[in-house]
Structure formats: C-alpha cells, structure tokens
Amino acid sequence: VQLVESGGGLVQPGGSLRLSCAASGFRFSTTAMSWARQVPGKGLEWVAGIYSDNAAYYKRSLEGRFAISRDNAKNTVYLQMNSLKPEDTATYYCATVNVDRGIDAYVSRGQGTQVTVSS
Questions:
Q1: Residues 93-119, buried b or exposed e (16+ Cβ, 10 A)?
Q2: What is the pLDDT of residue 105?
Q3: Segment 80-97, tens digit of pLDDT
Q4: Distance of alpha carbon 87 from alpha carbon 69, whole angstroms
Q5: Is the pLDDT of residue 68 over 90?
Q6: Are residues 38 and 90 in contact, defined by beta-carbon separation less than 8 angstroms?
Q7: DSSP states of 30-69 as a string?
Q8: Is residue 37 within 8 Å of 90, Cβ to Cβ?
Q9: CA 107 – CA 33 distance, rounded (Å)
Q10: How confident is the model at residue 104 (pLDDT cuts 50, 70, 90)?
C-alpha cells in the first residue's frame, strides 16, 4: 500500500486548498478512504471519509467547509478545503479504512502534507 499526499502549503485565512492523495498497491475502487489531521502533541483527528459508493461523511464542525471526493480512474482521493481558519493548521493524512471497524479505523496512511493557515 502506498499513499502519497500533496497540495498542502501556506494559505491566508479564508483561502482554499485542495489536497490530493494518490493511492497504489491495493484495489482503490473498493476501499473506503479517510482524511485525518494532526497537530504536534495531539492525536489524529478524523476529518472526512468516503466509501466506495461515494457516500461521504464529515467531522460535524467541518461540514460545509470541507468536501471529500474520489476519482477511481485516477486512484486518487481529494479533500477540498474552503474558508480555511488558523485552527485548520495541521499535517493532513489520507488513510485506508477498515469499514467493519468504522470510517475512522485507519489501516494504512501516507506521509502527510502540511497545511498552514496564517496571515
């Protein structure tokens, strides 16, 4: 399993970013995927998840600002982040999910991409 995140960077408050996660080494189209984030000194925080049927779920406090999507032809999952706030600053990871244990039951994750929201 290989997951490679990209698209992070420095953005001003109110700005947008789209993160991408290129997946390989497993059957992507039938695998549920999630995005999670982490700040130093804290655990992983689940952000959003998407099932193989494109059903999407979000951390309640982020719903309306973040959107997860997938392109099975490109083996890629995306996270569109709008109206970014300084508290969204974190390292963002994509992960494969064991759906039998829940959308936040991470199995494998990538190396992460840093998102910094600051003026």
A1: bbbbbeeeeebbbbeebbebbebebee
A2: 86
A3: 999 999 999 999 999 999
A4: 23
A5: yes
A6: yes
A7: G--EEEEEE-TTS--EEEEEE-TT--EEE-GGGBTTEEEE
A8: yes
A9: 10
A10: confident
Looking up tokens 């999910």, which residue turns up?
Answer: 97
Tokens, residue 119: 């003026």
Q: Cβ–Cβ contacts within 10 Å for residue 20, how many?
A: 17
DSSP letter string over 61-119? Answer: GGBTTEEEEEETTTTEEEEEE-S--GGG-EEEEEEEE-TTT-TT-EEEE---EEEEE--
Residues 32-42 have a mean pLDDT of: 96
Residues in the chain: 119
